[in-house]
TrEMBL record:
Pfam families: SIR2 (PF02146)
Listed Basic and acidic residues bias regions: 8-28, 329-341
SUPFAM superfamilies: DHS-like NAD/FAD-binding domain (SSF52467)
MF annotations from Gene Ontology: metal ion binding; NAD+ binding; transferase activity
Feature: compositional bias, Basic residues: 357-367
Cofactor or coenzyme needed: Zn(2+)
Coiled coil regions, renumbered to chain: none
Species per Swiss-Prot/TrEMBL record: Sus scrofa
Protein family membership: Belongs to the sirtuin family. Class IV subfamily.
Disordered: annotated span: 1-28, 319-367
Protein name: Regulatory protein SIR2 homolog 7
InterPro entries named among the record's database cross-references: DHS-like_NAD/FAD-binding_dom (IPR029035), NAD-dep_sirtuin_deacylases (IPR050134), Sirtuin (IPR003000), Sirtuin_cat_small_dom_sf (IPR026591), Ssirtuin_cat_dom (IPR026590)
Annotated ranges, domain Deacetylase sirtuin-type: 82-296
Length: 367
């Protein structure tokens, strides 16, 4: 006799009864689900009685259906009609002119015009991976700043927007440094020229928090946010940024928080907080905004791109530490560091969305 008062055979019999009940419940759930998929006029009298007897299951299944439909709607891209978009841009332009301290938060959506994939769009990295489809790295060697990038640069020149996060000038590279990195594994395989410490990339993967002082510069970003009276979000789902309450001045009473303007084709968790939501592509919105502000968007020139003067070249012996294509000054004539560099024909599995896109599974300790 067991300590609980039941013998082994009695416990096994009770377990069989429990499993039988669970299977009957699952079968009942499947039956109700099949009936609910039918039109009301197509249901038989017996099916109607089954639904009436299973009110709890009907309520649960209808709730699941509403949640699925809500999630589906949130993933859909919505575009404002041209006239509505122009009206909203005029309102945004007034906000930019009157802002005392404007801060801009950007996401992957500002680069899709350069054929660089975003994360949560219909063909985004996370979207494809959730569907079980493979994702290969985009070739960034020929990508150029978009109209949105250049518009933000001009707004900064005109002192209309604050720039808080500046790059670490010492180790800017002209190639993708995430080849060997992943979630919680940020070492690039190269070392500091001065102290020999391992260099790390500055990617913040989903599920991580930015902890580096530079070049992520969270301290300066939050200081800028604390002074902001207007925030403009461009091309970001805000799924990660919403985790940082200091960026939204949540410690302040609602009346003193900065006004929020969002440019995105999809739903974001901050939509209900926004003073204005613009459903449009970033380049389209910024083109209209710059026209409203009377500012010319500067053309992009690789020969004037500061990344080439800020970049730190590889040291001797580091040439084989990456296989990604490097940016060149000219598409027709590769830079000196690219001549003779091997080119791999295999698709590159980027750490920023390859191995780094999912959390590592726990491994059992070997004893």
């Amino acid at each position: 006799m067991a300590a609980g008062g039941l013998s082994r055979s009695e416990r096994k019999a009770a377990e069989r009864v429990r499993r039988l009940r669970e299977e009957q419940q699952r079968e009942r759930l499947r039956q109700v689900s099949r009936i609910l998929r039918k039109a009301a006029a197509e249901r038989s009298a017996e099916e109607g009685r089954l639904l009436a007897e299973s009110e709890d299951l009907v309520t649960e299944l209808q709730g699941r259906s509403r949640r699925r439909e809500g999630l589906k709607r949130r993933q859909e891209e919505v575009c404002d009609d041209p006239e509505e978009l122009r009206r909203k841009v005029r309102e945004l332009a007034d906000a930019v002119r009157n802002a005392k301290h404007l801060v801009v938060y950007t996401g992957a959506g500002i680069s899709t015009a350069a054929s660089i994939p975003d994360y949560r769009g219909p063909n985004g990295v996370w979207t494809l991976l959730q569907k079980g489809r493979s994702v290969s790295a985009a070739d960034l060697s020929e990508a150029e700043p978009t109209l949105t990038h250049m518009s933000i640069a001009r707004l900064h020149e005109q002192k209309l927007v604050c720039t808080a996060c500046v790059p670490n000038r010492e180790y800017v590279r002209v190639f993708d440094v995430t080849e060997r990195t992943a979630l919680h594994r940020h070492q690039t395989g190269r070392a500091c020229h001065t102290c020999g410490a391992q260099l790390r990339d500055t990617i913040v993967h989903f599920g991580e928090r930015g902890t580096l002082g530079q070049p992520l510069n969270w301290e300066a970003a939050t200081q800028a946010a604390s002074r902001a009276d207007t925030i403009l979000c461009l091309g970001s789902s805000l799924k990660v940024l919403k985790k940082y309450p200091r960026l939204w001045c949540m410690a302040k009473p609602p009346s003193r928080r900065p006004k929020l303007y969002i440019v995105n084709l999809q739903w974001t968790p901050k939509d209900d907080w926004a003073a204005l939501k613009l459903h449009g592509k970033c380049d389209d919105v910024m083109r209209l905004l710059m026209d409203e502000l009377g500012l010319e968007i500067p053309p992009y020139s690789r020969w004037q791109d500061p990344i080439f003067s800020l970049a730190t070249p590889l040291r001797a012996g580091e040439e084989g530490s990456h296989s990604r294509k490097s940016l060149c000054r000219s598409r027709e004539e590769p830079g000196p560091e690219d001549r003779g560099a091997p080119r791999s024909s295999a698709p590159a599995l980027g750490g920023w969305f390859g191995r780094g896109c999912t959390k590592r599974t726990k491994r059992k300790k070997v004893t």
